[in-house]
Amino acid sequence: MNTLRQIIAVTAVNLRAIPSRLGSSMVIVIGIAGVVGVLVALLSMAAGFKATLAGTGTHERAIVLRGGSTDELGSVITREQAAIITDTPGIARDADGTPQAIAEFYLLTDVAKPGADTPSNVVVRGTRVDVGRVRPEFRIVAGRMFTPGVREVVVGRAVAAQFETLRIGNTVDVRDGPWTIVGVFETGGDVHESELWVDAGALETASRRTAYNSVTVRLESAAAFATFKDALTTDPRMVVSAQREPDYYASRSEQLHLLIRILGYTVAVIMGIGAVFGALNVMYAAVATRAVEIATLRALGFGGLPVVVSVMIESLLLALAGGLVGAVVAYVFFNGYTVNTLNFQTFSQVAFAFRVTPELIRQGLAWALTMGLIGGLFPAIRAARLPIVEALRTG
Amino acid sequence: MAQTVVSLRGVSKRYTRGRQTIEVLHNLDLDIDKGDFLALMGPSGSGKTTLLNLIGGLDRPSAGELRVGDARLDQMSSAQLTRWRAQHVGFVFQFYNLLPVLSAERNVELPLLLTPLSAAERMKRVRIALQIVGLADRGKHKPAELSGGQAQRVAIARAIVADPTLLVCDEPTGDLDRKTADEVLGLLQLLNREHGKTIVMVTHDPKAAEFATHTLHLDKGRLVEQAAHA
Ligand SMILES: Nc1ncnc2c1ncn2[C@@H]1O[C@H](COP(=O)(O)OP(=O)(O)OP(=O)(O)O)[C@@H](O)[C@H]1O
Ligand SMILES: [Mg+2]
């Protein structure tokens, strides 16, 4: 109890002196705000990217690729295989008994980006006009759907926002010459909104392809996935793999997600070292200017521990203030900020929004407190070890 | 028969700086009785502050026996000394050493934070201490709003508020003009005479020494003379 009272008293004295050393105290606040701001911004980028990909698909849908393929681009599904897959047990059916399955082409095309030297890769998905049977979230938000057999394109909302050239009425080179853009679609904010959708039949002719890249099926229920997968993988006529959609998209986001996070932590560690040195400097200086005060308190009978704790509290509070400033700045400037990035696995464009989540803010504040802890600890120990007699002489 | 409060037997203090060891106090024997007001004089560098710091439990002797009250200070750890100081010594410094961010009242209260007293009891004692030094009306003032003499009187209130065994003052009037110094010395004399405080005071000023009951001279770390006033 006595120690607690001492801690409160010494801390109150310290904190009241902050206004008289406001400038140097701000070094801690601003330094740590910078680290936390950058860290939270970069991690929110990783989180947003992952959320966009992981938010694609539902557990009631599965995607079938060639066995061993990690993504649609490297996968080949022949017509015969597609027919067998479509007939597998576990797939939901329309009232008339038609399986809710869709075989699609997946390829990349160059789209010029204003102001950029090199064109960007954009995904082209060869699908069917009745794609809504398998992806009910699909909705035309401007213009109209493409016409089967015609070289027409509907563009995802996100990719339309990123490329000025992708306007209704414009043309885009998909394969074998220009295709006309006739509509804009959305799919609930998932990764498909970064794609161009065309009629599979028209694309087949233009690209002279004979095999599909993937088959996407709607399951009778989420639980029917096991039945579906077992039936497919034990079929001796082909080697294919089936994944639930969210698992598939989450795995595709992993590499870039990891890369951004590593980048974020690396930058934060480097900046953090700088901020910790700044904090150490400021706190050492604070202890030095208060040496006589500390020595006086120690002479009066105050213990070393309250001195240590009070210096730590001061450093932690300044760090926490910095952390909050950094997190708020990151939130205000980056939350919801939409960017385009390359998905390194497919080298195609994916548009996503930064997400400053409560978890990231917690993480940022934990970093701030860690920096404050390190920055305060050594000065605090020095303060407690201060030779009382010598400090009093200098007074 | 007078009761001995401070007793030194063969006390030496050495400082080691690098390879060099200098002995600042040589083999001192000294007794201070309860109720004494001792003035310690001597040239600069003679070891007055060093001796005072030993008696006040801020530092430990290199050799010899040092008792204050029932405590053997030479045998205590620094944590024990810290606790001992809180209960038994009041310090008065040349430059007052008040905490600038705290009001006079809060400065005086500091030593009481080391006791189990309640906030109300603490405030009561703070008021009494400020009354004794004649500053009952200055409790809310910050040190910067006080004159040198007032600040030193607040420091004296802080030194006596926890009713210590011993008051230890290092040149308490070294920074004050004659008139103010005499007032502060008069206050110390009052504390000694009326309140029975045992006081050890270092001073350069022979006039200040006249307020004491005894004067002791230090020269190059040795006690050279002991004279009693009236
Ligand atoms: N920490 C230390 N290390 C080495 N030498 C010291 C230390 N502290 C004091 N001294 C030396 O001890 C001697 C006595 O110092 P002290 O401060 O006790 O003198 P003083 O009588 O109080 O002098 P003044 O009247 O100037 O205050 C001086 O020579 C001083 O340089
Ligand atoms: Mg001295």
UniProtKB/TrEMBL annotation, chain A:
Residues 266-387 form the ABC3 transporter permease C-terminal domain. It comes from the Bacteria. InterPro entries: ABC3_permease_C (IPR003838), MacB_PCD (IPR025857), Macrolide_Exporter_MacB (IPR050250). GO terms for cellular component: plasma membrane. It holds the Pfam family MacB_PCD. It is a multi-pass membrane protein. The keyword Thylakoid does not apply. It is found in: Cell membrane. The keyword Transmembrane applies. This is Putative ABC transport system permease protein.
TrEMBL record, chain B:
GO terms for cellular component: plasma membrane; transmembrane transporter complex. It comes from the Bacteria. One of its GO terms (molecular function) is ATP hydrolysis activity. The keyword Transport applies. Residues 6-230 form the ABC transporter domain. Belongs to the ABC transporter superfamily. Macrolide exporter (TC 3.A.1.122) family. This is Putative ABC transport system ATP-binding protein. It comes from Fontimonas thermophila. The lineage of its organism: Bacteria, Pseudomonadati, Pseudomonadota, Gammaproteobacteria, Nevskiales.
